[in-house]
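Hi support team,

I submitted a single chain yesterday and got back a structure, but I'm not sure I'm reading the token output correctly. Could someone confirm the output below corresponds to the sequence I sent? I've pasted both exactly as they appear in my results page.

Thanks,
R.
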Amino acid sequence: MHNSFKKSKILFLPFAFIILSIGGVQAQKGNHELGAWYGYFFDTDFGESNFGIMADIQQRSFNVTNDFQQLILRAGLSYKIPGSSLRAVAGYSYFNSGTFGPSNEQSFENRLYQDLIWNNQFFEGRIAILHRIRLEERFVENQDFRTRYRYFLNAKLPLNKKTMGPKTFFLWVAGELFVNGQQQIGKGQTVSLYDRTWLFGGVGYQIRSGLRAELSYMREVTNTQTKGQLIVSLFHTF
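Hi R., thanks for writing in. Yes, this is the structure output for that exact sequence:
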């Protein structure tokens, strides 16, 4: 009982940190337009090596069917640290961003990033936890060089089996906190230290080993507004 309580506290604290991080944000205006993000995420190792590639392609819309929001192309070299669940990643991302509403104006960003990813399991493997810390170096069109820090936390709970595996339905929740490294971004423009928080909840299906699909709802919280997003994702390891 004592060990279970201790594990529950460890599991709860990171999620509490993300949720409480938005507590001091001033009242936001709700955006009732439901957006949609579609993504394909894949990774592969170089044979028996600890090195591999992690990449993703995402198409985002300001609403479910149209109004282009963003195209993301991202790829990184990964390294599994022997004797642990840690994986380090270093890579590059390309962002093409649209403008909400009838405008066809677009902007571009090139981004370098570094990840540190690790996993935990609780309650005899029934709950799987993934952590990711990400540092970004951002080269945004018409802005000065910027950095940003991100912490992502994801928890999965299988429904029809005791642990995750092929043909498993699961529930999942996640949160990601974004913090800006600079507030002065050039040409008189400023941003706040706190950038945004993403809060997710959804369902998924582990189709087979190395292939799963997820459907979720995400609420994005910034200093000025909140907005809902439908998230459809396919994850592929080969």
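A quick pointer for reading it: Residues 2-237 form a domain with the Porin fold (CATH 2.40.160.40). Let us know if anything else looks off.

Best,
Support desk
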